């Protein structure tokens, strides 16, 4: 099984150096989410807040 | 005690199947789980931004009310709620809010949250009884539709049998929505179903603002007719690909061509949405659907597995663009063009194709094959791919090599392509 973390580049996701891995939140509901204090989730949230503009990336194509 | 977040594991075969553009159902389950997890991370980030205290008290109170509504809406049936929470426009909306400038910008950007809660309640049958403000007299339910309420506020009462929207002071324009989003009453417009799928033509401006809306309002009949023809074209040439499109595309969002001549696109925060100007032929629409869907798949996969460690500072030339692209763009473009090479290979090798149609399809396939081959060399020579990125790219190369060998298509193909690729 491949893991999210890649040997030699343990904290990289989506090609963005330093980005944490995406935690598996299957089974977490919205009522729980505000109180979920998990290191991986906290790191992922901080990554989003550090650079929210990266989520506006759009792959554009022309004819 | 709150449950702990888990860690995803990606089976090697999943990576290889996705690289070959033809994943299995179990692979999609993983991608859907990843998308939902990303969506929850974005929601949590939004909670954190709101928690910084920059909102005026009234806006903060409105957010707290709407978040509680959303929690209530999800609670009876979390699995059903995901269909709305994971809808592409919801991802785009969260990103809009996260990037909104200052307290005023954030206050305005948070407005759709109440509508998302109501749309979620429609899915789950949750009981809500609340009053929501409109925007310019209009109540928007992302992914569902919009009510021209002609009132400043709308009372919302929902339950297992549907939702009643009653404009305050204008009850004559009340609307009752069934759980499928269809409604009866003045001023209600629901998103149109994309025929043969669970997707929607998101043409009511219920989405986010990152992508320019088409203006004036698009010709819905023209869009649905061309969608139907594009899917029929895919089904005749490649039933597997047609099924993928109808299963995965959640929304087609009409857009005006953006700067630089872009006529279609995929937003990282909104996978499974195809933003496009109206393609002029069914063949072109089919290509857009396949192309953009590939971007979505790779966007979600890249949340699970690091494929490269490029920081964007180095750029590379690719055959399909005049401007140099960062490595991530090269990877995305290579994958999307591989899906098109795959499509035209199936079209070219279908039994019963006329010589003329086969000739056209093979020419298209070879054009894409040459482009992808060049880009694969860029990727493999970049020294910026991770171990998994190399494996993914080598698998793309192997799949490219397999195309065009002929007589290996497991799909029954009919002869419904005309010379220009439209459905006869």
Structure described in brief:
Chain A has 63 residues and is of the alpha+beta class. Helix content of chain A is 19%, strand content 13%. With 424 residues, chain B is of the alpha+beta class.
Walk me through what this model shows:
- The complex is a heterodimer of chains A (63) and B (424).
- Chain A has a domain at 16-53.
- Chain A contains one helix and three strands.
- Residues 1-18 of chain A have low confidence and may be disordered.
- Chain A is an alpha+beta fold.
- The relative contact order of chain A is 0.14.
- Chain A has one helix at residues 39-50, and strands at residues 2-3, 23-24, 58-61.
- Chain B has 424 residues and is an alpha+beta fold.
- Chain B folds into two domains: 12-190, no CATH class; 220-402, no CATH class.
- A five-stranded antiparallel sheet of chain B has the order 3-6-7-8-9, with helices on one face.
- In chain B, 53% of the residues are buried.
- Mean pLDDT of chain B is 90; it is low at 407-424.
- The interface between A and B is large, with 51 and 76 residues.
- Strand 2 of chain A pairs antiparallel with strand 1 of chain B.
- Chain A: It comes from Streptomyces niveus (Streptomyces spheroides).
- Chain A: Residues 1-23 are annotated as: Disordered.
- Chain A: This is FXSXX-COOH protein.
Largest sheet of chain A: none
What is the chain-wise order of helices and strands of chain A?
Answer: EEHE
- Fraction of residues of chain B in helices? 40-55%
Number of domains of chain B: 2
Shape designation of chain A: elongated
Report the biggest beta sheet of chain B as strand number plus sense, adding barrel if it closes.
Answer: 5 strands, antiparallel
Rg value of chain A = 14 Å
Mean pLDDT of chain B: 90
- What low-confidence regions of chain A span 5 or more consecutive residues with pLDDT below 50? 1-18
Element order, helices and strands of chain B?
EEHHHHHHHEEEEEEEEEEHHEEEHEEHHH
Strand content of chain B: 5-15%
What sort of overall outline of chain B do the alpha carbons produce when their principal axes are compared? globular
Q: Compute the separation of the termini of chain B in Å.
A: 61 Å
Question: How much is the radius of gyration of chain B in Å?
Answer: 23 Å
Number of continuous helical runs of chain A: 1
Distance between the termini of chain A: 39 Å
- β-strand percent of chain A reads 5-15%
Biggest interface goes to: A-B, 51 and 76 residues
